Amino acid sequence: MEQRTLGRTGVSVSALGLGCMGMSEFYGAGDDTASIATIHRAIDLGITFLDTADIYGPFTNERLLGRAIADRRGRVMVATKFGNVRDDSGKFLGINGKPDYVKQACDASLQRLGVETIDLYYQHRVDPTVPIEDTVGAMAELVTAGKVRHLGLSEAGPDTIRRASQVHAIAALQTEYSLWTRDPEEEILPLCRELGIGFVAYSPLGRGFLTGRFRSIDDLPAADWRRQSPRFQGDNFAKNLELVAHVEALASRKRCTAAQLALAWILRRGTDIVPIPGSKTIERLEENARAVDVAKTLTDEEMRKIDALFPAGSAAGTRYAEAGMKTLNR
Q: Of 80, 145, 272, 280, which is most buried with the most CB atoms under 10 A?
């Protein structure tokens, strides 16, 4: 597996990571046995950058990942997050970036993961009521204490990123990025490159939509969170299927799957970008892993053609419902 460096930190991670969220929540029922087998297969394939968060489950995804890596800790880089707060029932309680909470959340994640140190610790969402300097200052103390190796931000805006990086080196910014979410290209990606911050792309397959597996809302499990996503609803669904048709046509000509082409496009956007597609099965994991090879065959002309077919703003619908959009720091 190709390796990439997160910004100027010197931290080496696999070119493709593995998002573990869907193994525990949001995308239908989970299967811990299958999920652990998938994580083990990922490690065997060289995919060693594993992503979770305390609220996934809630709280169960970190435990799942901890069990999976218990005898493989030295072979993986674990990233987790704090800041989105939920109770045991799953109720969303808001965003918390207060220094005391940062330390409390870190200790809880360490216990659930069963590790002594978190490799990359993100603030999941920026707390608008707490100066970013205070939050990152508390995160920096975790580095000094040896509980965390590197710091990251998720869905942070340009001003927040600049201010945070003046407090402590930021290894990575995690933000949604895919063929149907190209917003980061205008300001965020250039800023990350200016400051030497790695870019981690979550939902690089458009929450599965860009794979072509979904032809109607009925293809999603009844309890699937995506049924509430604006891009999966009504006329938006139909319009976004037209984008998928373009992906499938291009993929057919490249003799690869739509998912592989969508991931390959991101990989070719820069060696400082690391996509973290979620995979719940070994089959999907292995399919996604082959995108690294597809990326090596994409020509500049093919990249221009893809860019022209998927200009920024081409997806129908916002990427979250109104409440979710309000949590994004811009």
A: 80
Q: 207 in the Ramachandran plot: left (φ > 0), alpha (ψ -120 to 50) or beta?
A: left
- Name the catalytic one among 56, 121, 122, 177: 56
Residue 56 annotated as catalytic: yes
Pairing of strands 273-275, 3-6: unpaired
> CA 89 to CA 86: how far, in whole Å?
8
Q: Find all residues with CB under 8 Å of 271, minimum gap 6, and list them.
A: 4
Tokens representing 22 are 């869907």
pTM listed for this prediction? 0.96
Pairing assessment for the beta strands 92-95 and 84-86 based on DSSP bridges: antiparallel
- What is the mean predicted confidence (pLDDT) over 237-258? 95
Q: What is the DSSP letter of 132?
A: H
Return the number of other C-beta atoms located less than 10 Å from residue 85's C-beta: 19
Q: pLDDT (tens digit, 9 = 90+) per residue, 199-240?
A: 999 999 999 999 999 999 999 988 899 999 999 999 999 999
pLDDT digits (tens, 9 = 90+) for 252-276: 999 999 999 999 999 999 999 999 9
